[in-house]
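User: Here's a chain of 192 residues. Predict its fold as tokens.
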Amino acid sequence: STKDREQADAYHEQISATIKNTLTANKVTVKGSYDNGLLGADLYDTGSTTRHTNLPGGYDFDFALRLDTNDFPRAAQLAAEMKKQFTFSGDNSHDEAGGYYQLRLTGVTEIEGVALPSPIDIDIGFAKKSDLSTFASHDALREKFGWIKENIGDEAYENTLANILLAKKVLKDAGAYKKTDGGFGGIGTENW
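Assistant: Prediction complete.
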């Protein structure tokens, strides 16, 4: 629904601003969305919520944060600073091999002291910019949805999103949506 999309967009803006503000406060340069320069952290939204293909009311925000080589060793420290900006009930954050860090907060009820209408989940993967960058699935979907909207029209775009949401609901109701249940998972369903 339009209301659900507006809520998702508002959450996304609030989370993105908090991430960028925390990085800036910790002397990490953050690139603008259209900055093609080499230096500065890149923040990508990688989840279905920002593509508006999430199940209604299910707000799970996924981000990838690519840090410059000199900032990357501070990934866990930067994540700890970010956590301070959120009030949450669950923390599944962890270090990964090679110094990578995954910030995973569940049941987030406040962002920088501002109460949210309903709890959300936030997942931020910290990576090095020097790692090989590929054309990721979330980029391909964003491009595909953009092409549908620009070349076929708004109605086709809306129908595409509606069909994805219906497929996710049917699979979820059948217990076959998440990868842990033997299903495609969110991005798999969107590509299906």
